[in-house]
């Protein structure tokens, strides 16, 4: 068990990176505290897997250091880092039985037979693989195989961190829930550091205590699910998390006053200095937009999402989404919307003004 | 029924291939079956003999001897070519510019015709002027493939290994290339030794292509004719008289069409049986 830190880590798969587009990871400083349950969230291609492989040592970063409990392990091989990693597609050793698969990492580390037997049994029981133990692993279904992959990571007690790289991609939806709660349960029982990579916000928000959101090779925000929802520090986070995502509307700032399409908008973080030459936007979640005196809009579409309706409105060329509770009438014409000043924020060049 | 489903035109389209297969496989095979149960004294006169030739071949010491030689030969080349091919495939680079270079080098021997390989080695191994033969003799080995059975065998095996190991290499390499990186990464994380990686990842993943490699080499080596024919014509004595050499001697040397035909059929059935047993054993686990 250890605290894992990344210090000024950068990585490029190109031998001589020229522009920012050549960097898969741009300047990362991160700390994973011991025993945390983290989710690494971001769209495909944002560098999540690269970051994971740098921690596990499968990839050496172009620059920067990887520290385990302040010991520099950047150049040390995977075997010396005591990490477990579960991949997107199940990896099983076809010729072995389920039992042998689970015992494999322990046997390689020279544990005593009795200890192996006891650990394999415990982990198989937890993953509900007991009945499968004597069977050949090759004959299992995709989710059975992925359970074995998970099991090989979980069976070891010496690991510093267990990393999951979108491990539930191949699993049926109803089993996803089960396995995810298993992982959560396991984390609570063992308090081992876990990093869960996903591009699915539901997965990230239900699993993690802390979510690390990545975008184009950078970390844009680290926070609890509530923080990410309530106070996105980057327009990307606002847009990516939440369904529907945050409204991001271009605005102008004149003498400390925020103007959206010529109308004054009150924000939670009014500008203090000059923002000349910067791209300014306001961000407000559909949850905090309501019908009422304010910006005149025309209603484009209303879709029923069960307990509430998602209303898509338009002001000039800008689309604004808002949530309207059941029973509240949506006017067909002459509608206008207002933004909740406590949850409307000003962003400059994509970043929250603080 | 409407007109369309009654249309029998489709038969017309398969006719060319039926004719082709009939002429290049079925008719010759049936001719052999026909000869195998008859006696002929020329002049196109035939007498029905039943299974006499089959009994004669199966009880002949000469057939037993060439079958024995054949089994030793095929067993030996398989025992060398398969492990060697796998070892070379493992040593080949997995990515980069050298991949194509290696693949082309490996494919070269496969492009050379059998009789050319035979002729090349024949000259290469001549004890007086051949590079290999002269070198071996100068090093103190008593090497002469036209006189010593052991020299002839060694040359024949070296020739086959040189010619055909590449096939195993290419197939094994294809099998290795198909293994996703995640397997190697998982093995690293599980702390597997390189032997364990070979034993539990690479070998099982290569099983299918290796099955094909062994089958091809087994069938092909059982049919080997040109190389021993070019090297010594089956000698010295009968030392390298493998099944096909023997068969050709009986059929074209002695003109014993009946026994030769019976032997052909037995020969064919042996290859079929060996291949079937091997294939059944290799694929047995996959059903379970």
In short:
The complex is a heterodimer of chains A (354) and B (288). Chain A is 24% helix and 34% strand.
SSE arrangement:
The complex is a heterodimer of chains A (354) and B (288).
Chain A lengths: L3 E9 L10 E10 L4 E5 L6 H9 L6 E6 L2 E2 L10 E4 L11 H11 L4 H14 L15 H13 L6 E5 L7 H18 L2 E6 L2 H7 L2 E6 L2 E6 L1 H6 L4 H6 L6 E4 L1 E3 L2 E4 L2 E3 L14 E5 L4 E16 L3 E8 L2 E8 L9 E5 L4 E5 L2 E2 L2
Parallel strand pairs in A: 3-8, 3-9, 6-7, 7-8
Antiparallel strand pairs in A: 1-2, 1-4, 4-5, 9-10, 11-15, 12-13, 13-14, 15-20, 16-17, 16-19, 17-18, 20-21
Helix pairs in contact in A: 2-3, 2-4
Chain B lengths: L2 H4 L2 H28 L1 E3 L5 E3 L3 H7 L2 H31 L6 H10 L6 H11 L6 H8 L10 H29 L3 H9 L4 H29 L3 H6 L11 H11 L3 H31 L1
Antiparallel strand pairs in B: 1-2
Helix pairs in contact in B: 2-13, 3-13, 4-8, 4-10, 8-10, 10-13, 12-13
Fold and architecture overview:
- The complex is a heterodimer of chains A (354) and B (288).
- Chain A contains 8 helices and 21 strands.
- With 354 residues, chain A is α+β, with helices and mostly antiparallel strands.
- Chain A folds into 2 domains: 234 residues, Rossmann fold (3-Layer(aba) Sandwich), CATH 3.40.50.300; 110 residues, OB fold (Dihydrolipoamide Acetyltransferase, E2P) (Beta Barrel).
- In chain A, the strands form 5 sheets. Chain A has a 6-stranded mixed sheet, sandwiched between helices.
- In chain A, a hairpin with a 2-residue loop joins β4 and β5.
- In chain A, α2 packs across α3 and α2 runs parallel beside α4.
- The two termini of chain A are 36 Å apart.
- Chain B has 288 residues and is an all-alpha fold.
- Chain B has a domain of 199 residues: MetI-like fold, CATH 1.10.3720.10.
- In chain B, strands 1-2 form a two-stranded antiparallel sheet.
- The interface between A and B is medium-sized, with 26 and 18 residues.
């Amino acid at each position: 068990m250890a605290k894992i830190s990344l210090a000024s880590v950068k990585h490029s798969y190109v031998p001589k990176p020229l522009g920012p587009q050549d960097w898969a990871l741009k300047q990362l400083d991160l700390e994973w505290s011991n025993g945390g349950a983290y989710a690494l969230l971001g769209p495909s291609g944002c560098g999540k897997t690269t970051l994971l492989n740098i921690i596990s040592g499968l990839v050496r970063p172009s620059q920067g250091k990887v520290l385990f409990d302040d010991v520099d392990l950047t150049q040390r091989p995977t075997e010396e880092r005591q990490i477990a990693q579960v991949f997107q597609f199940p990896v099983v050793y076809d010729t072995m039985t389920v039992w042998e698969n689970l015992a494999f990492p322990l046997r390689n580390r020279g544990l005593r037979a009795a200890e192996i037997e006891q650990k394999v049994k415990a982990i198989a029981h937890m993953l509900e693989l007991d009945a499968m133990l004597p069977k050949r692993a090759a004959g299992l279904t995709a989710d059975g195989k992925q359970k074995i992959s998970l099991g090989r990571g979980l069976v070891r007690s010496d690991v510093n961190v267990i990393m999951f790289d979108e491990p539930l991609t191949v699993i049926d939806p109803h089993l996803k829930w089960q396995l995810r709660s298993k992982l959560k349960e396991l984390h609570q029982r063992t308090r081992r550091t876990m990093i869960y990579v996903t591009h699915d916000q539901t997965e990230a928000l239900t699993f993690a205590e802390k979510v690390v959101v990545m975008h184009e090779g950078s970390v844009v925000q680290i926070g609890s699910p509530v923080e990410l929802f309530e106070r996105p520090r980057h327009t990307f986070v606002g847009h990516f998390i939440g369904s529907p995502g945050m409204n991001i509307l271009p605005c102008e700032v004149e003498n400390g006053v925020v103007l959206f399409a010529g109308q004054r908008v009150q924000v939670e973080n009014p500008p203090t200095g000059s923002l000349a030459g910067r791209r300014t936007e306001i961000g407000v979640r559909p949850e905090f937009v309501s019908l009422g005196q304010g910006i005149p809009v025309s209603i484009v579409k209303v879709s029923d999402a069960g307990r509430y309706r998602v209303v898509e409105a338009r002001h000039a060329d800008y689309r604004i989404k808002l949530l309207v509770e059941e029973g509240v009438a949506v006017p067909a014409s002459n509608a206008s919307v207002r933004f909740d000043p406590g949850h409307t924020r000003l962003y400059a060049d994509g970043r929250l003004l603080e | 029924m409407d007109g369309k489903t009654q249309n029998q035109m489709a038969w017309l389209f398969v006719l060319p291939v039926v004719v082709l297969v009939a002429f290049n496989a079925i008719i010759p095979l049936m001719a052999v079956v026909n000869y195998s149960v008859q006696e002929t004294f020329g002049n196109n006169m035939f007498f029905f003999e039943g299974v006499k030739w089959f009994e004669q071949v199966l009880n002949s010491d000469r057939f037993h001897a060439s079958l024995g030689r054949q089994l030793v030969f095929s067993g030996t080349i398989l025992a060398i070519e398969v492990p060697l091919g796998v070892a070379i495939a493992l040593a080949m680079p997995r990515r980069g510019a050298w991949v194509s270079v290696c693949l082309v080098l490996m494919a070269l021997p496969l492009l050379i015709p059998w009789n050319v390989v035979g002729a090349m080695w024949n000259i290469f191994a001549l004890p007086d002027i051949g590079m290999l033969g002269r070198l071996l003799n100068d090093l103190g080995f008593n090497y002469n493939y036209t006189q010593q059975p052991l020299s002839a065998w060694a040359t024949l095996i070296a020739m086959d290994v040189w010619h055909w190991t590449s096939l195993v290499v290419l197939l094994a390499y294809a099998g290795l290339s198909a293994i996703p990186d995640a397997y190697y990464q998982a093995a690293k994380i599980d702390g597997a030794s390189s032997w364990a990686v070979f034993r539990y990842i690479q070998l099982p993943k290569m099983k299918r292509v290796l099955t094909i490699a062994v089958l091809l080499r087994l069938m092909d080596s059982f049919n080997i004719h040109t190389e021993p024919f070019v090297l010594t014509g089956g000698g010295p004595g009968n030392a390298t008289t493998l099944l096909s050499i023997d068969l050709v001697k009986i059929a074209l040397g002695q003109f014993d069409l009946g026994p030769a035909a019976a032997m052909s059929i037995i020969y064919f059935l042996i290859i079929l049986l060996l291949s079937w047993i091997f294939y059944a054993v290799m694929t047995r686990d996959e059903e379970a």
